[in-house]
Amino acid sequence: MISNILREASKSFVTRRCIRFLSTTPRVLQVQIQPSVRQEVLKFDPGIPVEKACTPPSSWYTEPALLQLEKKAIFGNNWTAVGRVDQVATPGQFFEGKIANEAFVVCRDENDKLQAFFNVCRHHAMPVAKGEGKIDCFECPYHGWTYALNGRLTKARKLRGIEDFKAKNYGLIPMPVTTWGQLIMVKLQPGREGGNEGLAQLDPYREFLTETGYSPENFQFVRRKTYEINSNWKVVIDNFIDGGYHIDFAHKTFVDGYYDFSTYQMREANEDYSTQLVKVKTDKPKAIERIGLWSTYTFAYPNFMISRYGSWYETNTVIPISIDKTHFVYDFYLDKKEVSKYTPEELEAHVTDSITSADQVQQEDTEICEGVQTGMASLAYETGRYAPRIEYPQHLFHVRLGKDMRAWIQYLIHNCAKI
Prior knowledge:
4-stranded antiparallel beta sheet; single chain
């Protein structure tokens, strides 16, 4: 019976990812999905075209149980951007963080291999790493259990008298890790093998980036800015991929100063990524000098964006902290040829001046996202509609979310989880 279910389920590309996760994670079969959660997921039908579709229900943005589902259905089955390659360029370097309140740590081990682990001590669950930097090992600050950078338990203090214990069985729990350009990507699932689905599908976009003159080795990281946004992570992405619907209305100063909004266009949109283009105003020579003739803005499922303009390359990662809190990270890169024109002090001033407009736009977007989150919790709001010729990238994002969550729920049903 089970073999037949698996065979049938494997026909679905999304469900195949669920099968891989479940095959490496026995514990997830104990997960209980409340009937109300399933009901809310099913309220959005991915098969309805954008012209007739309503947006997902507000519960997708306000109910904590939905984020717990997303942790497994979305972030456990898709490569999720969490950091930069240069943060772990040499052995011993590490950084830690959280996705949907799930702690992780990424490092470069003694053999120059990239590693990622759940940041949880196998003794009594204390995080073993904090912040970022360079270390020789992970040492739990609670009881001193120590782990090598490859995750192996190397010291467990005062265990005299313990039975049925083998240190090799108590290493840090690994998670899949890979790179895409200058980004570190992980999946929130135990195990080291994550497959390459979701990255190979970005190859056409990688080719487009190359056409813009981008190559990872030619750009240098110059600045990070972070924002704590009091909204659901999907609100942040919805705002980015509304096809430019809000830009001429909500970012008037930005549009008046830089872009010819009449040239705004969608180059490509699918369930994996979407790319928007806009031309710089020809009567703004200083703007052209800084950001070139065109700017491109791309979202890649599930949680990162890339902007390319002039001599700049910018990545944004959207990290859910809780159902209504998001950690938003801007990383700015500059062409090394441009960097070489400045002294360190001049470069610092140039970067600060250049990203001022980006900071202004993000402040405006933060206000928008937080306002939307407040509205999502209102008794007066359940669903909205799409402007079909503009907001179809947003609809594609919601379709992918709906498919991933439905596939996960369906697989749990087939495996006798409590629904």
